[in-house]
């Protein structure tokens, strides 16, 4: 197996796309806050699909490079995990509605017993509901959310806004992240 590093222009492009996707992910989180009640449905869907499309671009850019260097199509399809592809254009499917029902602690939809994927997604929704109750207890998730909010606040130069929409413990941590990301001032050169 060939072990050459990723070409620098491709590496820079992938880094840019990942940064863009992270920014969109942060906005998804931002629009879930209570002060966004009037726009959350529209904006969370816009930003979540923007993030997914951006990561698709990154994946396909890398795949195009791999293909151009002679990677066999069956290997490429395997790496792209095409079996996991979900068509958003078709809209929510039975398994998506089943996962939502499990998440909202509603009864399993009809057919959940007979269809394996629908049953599994319903159970996944139940699991997500249970683990969501433990969100505050999971330092890794808290840290991830704080990093995303802190990064966005620094990029927008709006650190003070963190206190307007985040719970105090997350705002405090996000503020610390934003402070770390602040560019240090250049030291004044000593007079000669």
Structure characterization notes:
- With 192 residues, this protein is mainly alpha-helical.
- The protein is built from eight helices and no strands.
- Helix 1 packs across helix 6 (139-155).
- The chain is flat.
- The relative contact order is 0.09.
Blueprint of the fold:
Layout: H1 8-30, H2 40-68, H3 73-80, H4 94-103, H5 116-132, H6 139-155, H7 162-165, H8 168-181
Helix pairs in contact: 1-2, 1-6, 4-5, 6-8
**C-alpha termini separation:** 58 Å
Structural class comes to mainly alpha
**Shape annotation:** flat
Name the beta content range.
Answer: under 5%
Task: Summarize the helix and strand pattern as letters.
Answer: HHHHHHHH
Helix content: 55-70%
Radius of gyration: 21 Å
Q: DSSP helix count?
A: 8
Major beta sheet summary: none
Summarize this, please?
By secondary structure, this protein is mostly helical. Helix content is 64%, strand content 0%. 15% of the residues are buried.
List keywords for this structure.
192 residues; mainly alpha; 8 helices; 64% helix
